[in-house]
Design a protein that fits this description.
The chain is mainly alpha-helical. The protein contains 10 helices and 2 strands. The C terminus is likely disordered.
């Protein structure tokens, strides 16, 4: 009988040999299990291990994709949960906003302001996530610190995972989008005013609001539903 470790080796080899290239979508579980001669349960264990290694990403409603080469070099003992991502963002992004307020050039300030005040009506959760990532990435670029930008990019890549998408698809109502957009505008205004402490405080308030929204969804999850670590379990780092 094929073990999970053997299945993992087969999948690793298929990815490394180019059978499934970077960015490629893997076949559905049933088809993949048949093609590899694996049981569904064994396949799922192997896929979970590959996700922890950063070799694949699961996107809710879309499927499972092979990560690019850079992301595949990341290694985790356990896959970071949405709680882990939010805790790390609370530690990192106020510092990014602080640096951006001090270092952003005029065209970057204009772009940050534009992204904080997008034209058009509300979008679905995927559209909002794209807008949100663009705004936060612009701040990171304006910080003039490539390491901070790289760390934020890594966390944004984790937001493509299935557990994150499941939460955001439930929580990102038009009302919350409006609220978060106001928070983005407050961050952008502080950056434009060169108010570094104010930008950091506005970013911290924004991320705490996002975390509260996600934590409420987890608390209301149906009994027995697989849910990520409770976001309220992360220490509030200020």
């Amino acid at each position: 009988m094929t073990t999970a470790n053997q299945a993992l080796d087969r999948l690793r080899a298929a990815i490394e040999d180019g059978e499934y290239g970077a960015g490629a979508r893997l076949p559905a579980e049933r088809a993949l299990a048949v093609s590899l001669g694996l049981g569904r349960g064994t396949l799922r264990k192997a896929l979970a291990a590959l996700e922890r290694e950063g070799r694949i990403r699961r996107r809710v409603g879309e499927g499972t994709f092979v990560a690019d080469g850079e992301a595949a070099t990341l290694r985790f003992d356990a896959a970071p949960s949405p709680a882990d991502v939010m805790e790390a963002r609370r530690m990192l992004e106020p510092a990014i906003a602080h640096a951006a307020a001090l270092r952003a050039k005029a065209p970057e300030v204009a772009e940050i302001t534009r992204l904080a005040n997008p034209e058009g009506d509300g979008v679905d959760w995927r559209g909002w996530e794209a807008r949100d990532i663009a705004f936060h990435a612009a701040l990171a670029a304006a910080s003039r610190n490539p390491l901070l930008s790289a760390l934020l990019t890594m966390m944004h890549e984790m937001r493509e995972r299935e557990d994150w998408g499941r939460l955001r698809s439930r929580t990102l109502t038009p009302e919350l989008q409006t609220s978060h957009a106001r928070q983005h505008a407050a961050i952008a205004a502080a950056v434009a005013d060169r108010d570094a402490p104010g930008a950091a405080a506005a970013m911290r308030a924004h991320l705490l609001a996002v975390e509260t929204d996600l934590a409420g969804e987890i608390q209301n999850a149906d009994p027995g539903e697989a849910a990520p670590t409770d976001l309220q379990g992360a220490e509030d780092v200020r």
